[in-house]
Amino acid sequence: MDKFIQLTLTGLTNGAIFALVALGFVLIYKASDVINFAQGDFLLVGAYITYGMIVQVGLPWSVSVLLAIVAAVVLGVVVERLFLRPMIGEPIISVIMVTIGLSSLLRSIVTSIWGTIGRQFPAFLPSQPLNIAGAVVPADRFIAIGMAVVLLIVFTLFFRYSREGIAMRATADDQQAALSMGISVKRIFAIAWSIAAVTAALAGIIVANITELSFFAISAIGLHVFPVVILGGLDSIPGAIIGGLIIGLLESYVGGYTPSTLALRTVFPFIVLIIILMIKPYGLFGEIRIERV
Amino acid sequence: MESGIFHTTYESDMALRRTPIMRWRIILAVAFTVIFPFIGNSYTLTLADQIGIAAIGAIGLNILTGFTGQISLGQGGFMAIGAYTAGVLTTMVGMPWWLTIPIACVVTALVGAFFGIPSLRLKGLYLAIATLAAQQIIQWAIVRSPLGTDALVVPPIKVFGQSLNRLRIGSFGGIDFWFYWVIYFFLALTILFAVNLFRTKIGRAFIAIRDQDIAAEVMGVNLFRYKLMSFATSSFIVGLSGALLAQYRGIVNYERFTIDASIFYLAVIIIGGLGSVSGSVYGAIFMVLLPATLSNLGQSLSGSVPGLARLIPFVQQAVFGITIILFLILEPEGLAKIWRDIKDYFRLWPFSY
């Protein structure tokens, strides 16, 4: 039983992180119909800037995290302005490839500065083990879940009540109608990219905190987001959260209860993805699009 | 330049190369390809072989993505199927190398068609993500199979009982020299096949699906059937490039066929030109020569700039990303369009249009 609880908690932690990353992903898709293959690299940027500020510059962690957030906002705005705005109205494959090119560019910048060797992250979250119903879990996992939940609530409230949030939902619903109501769609795109970069950066910092600063592990999370968003529906924010938790839990259970030599853990989310696509192509909460010639 | 040419028969009007200058260009290209191995050294031959294999793979992907409009991120996985089939048949079954290549193509075509089944219900982004899943699943299956993560060593090709590496005629020989002919023979076949494919009913159906699939279905194109055919045809050629790679390199390693390979080939066809057979070849030349040039440049400068050699891989990756982005923003139709513009300029010269 304690193994089950252990796996559940691990799954929830990973799920919360997936949900955070997926949130930014869905946000960009909703606002601008762009699939962002560079989402995993935003995680890298957040984690490595924080690392650099704490270890190499010697700033306190709170300031470092703040700086990483500021950097993410700037990155989001710059990326949107320079790379994505010329792509409005271009075919899907062009838009996908631009984000892939961006991913390659960001990776080369990060690796040229910090290399790809795993590093000890100066964990600032407390990590003493807590004993819950027989399962031993480090405290930082709970803080990670808690932070993810808080961020998700903040964003949900933002979309519901703030002026910008409502404008974003309007843009997602119908760009032309939003434009005619006086909403600056360009500004909305920039905000969407900044928020996505910030959530991803925070997720990167959390991941680095509870494991280590590993280039490959963190950038792999970018691919893990696809099963999550497909399960939840590409354009649904609640879908991203629930999808994240489901994939996180499934992955954890599959990893825990099948022989580790099979390494089913890594491929299982993708098998789920194919099955969902075959049964329910628009995911659990995605909006079904009707096409006309 | 093209004035004074009158087609008096349907055959001449429908020929692939309709004007004398087109024919001259193709003769020059073929002549250059034939002469090249005799003037090149082993380094340039290695690059030429890489270009040939990349061009075959790119034509395969272009049939699916550029002509049928089905975005595939599973190219690396399909190439892996071709390469491993050829490798396993050679090492474990002991088949002659030339027989493994067609078998690898057929196996890859079947696997490609299988992973094309979701395309019945999915399109665009969703299909791209489904092929991404195919890539991950194939990679997992290979690593977890008895083959594992170890590289599969394919014995060197033997002709008349002698290893191809040692076979020499005069000063010419070595695997790069001999395989050059194999690769460019298959490349020529692939180009001829692909160019003619889009003059047939099947090829036209592919293009109709790309342009507007619902409209194509209304006009009587059986979507599912043609999409599967496109997946199978494309994978057949991709399998060919994988099998050639296995036989040429003599070593098959799954790390060569990860998602990065899929991305590389997408970049090749984007930069070369989506929906253009010649563009696939231009793209392959460009994308193989670009990192090689950067690395040579870096090496020659590393004497004067200390620490530059360490930066070369990062610069290559950054330039890869920047090239994709710049092409998409400045010339979305790729090198094929640039070449067409150049030809148009000279055709209309001295008038601007």
Protein model, in words:
The complex is a heterodimer of chains A (293) and B (353). Chain A has one domain. By secondary structure, chain A is an all-alpha fold. Chain A starts with a helix and ends in a 14-residue tail after the last helix. Chain A is globular, with a radius of gyration of 19 Å. Helices cover 74% and strands 3% of the residues of chain A. The mean pLDDT of chain A is 85. Chain A is built from eleven helices and two strands; from the N terminus they run ααααββααααααα. Chain A has a two-stranded antiparallel sheet with strand order 1-2. With 353 residues, chain B is mostly helical. In chain B, a hairpin with a 2-residue loop joins strand 4 and strand 5 (172-173). In chain B, strands 1-6 form a two-stranded antiparallel ribbon. Chain B has a two-stranded antiparallel sheet with strand order 2-3. A two-stranded antiparallel ribbon of chain B has the order 4-5. Helices cover 72% and strands 3% of the residues of chain B. Chain B is globular, with a radius of gyration of 21 Å. Chain B has a single domain (35-348), classed as ABC transporter involved in vitamin B12 uptake, BtuC. Chain B contains 14 helices and six strands.
Please provide a brief summary of the model.
The complex is a heterodimer of chains A (293) and B (353). With 293 residues, chain A is mostly helical.
Mean pLDDT of chain A: 85
How would you spell out the order of helices and strands of chain B? Answer: HHHHHHEEEEEHHHHEHHHH
Strand content of chain B: under 5%
- Shape annotation of chain A: globular
Largest sheet of chain A: 2 strands, antiparallel
| Poorly predicted parts of chain A | none
Reading side by side through the largest sheet of chain A, how are the strands ordered? 1-2
The ordered H/E elements of chain A are HHHHEEHHHHHHH
How far apart lie the N and C ends of chain B? 14 Å
| CATH first level of chain B | Mainly Alpha
- The tally of beta strands of chain B, per DSSP, is 6
Number of separate domains of chain A: 1
Percentage of helical residues of chain A?
over 70%
Spatial strand order of the main sheet of chain B:
1-6
Looking at the chains present, what oligomeric state does this protein adopt? heterodimer
Rounded to an integer in angstroms, the radius of gyration calculated over CA atoms of chain A is: 19 Å
Give the second-level CATH assignment, the architecture of chain B.
Orthogonal Bundle
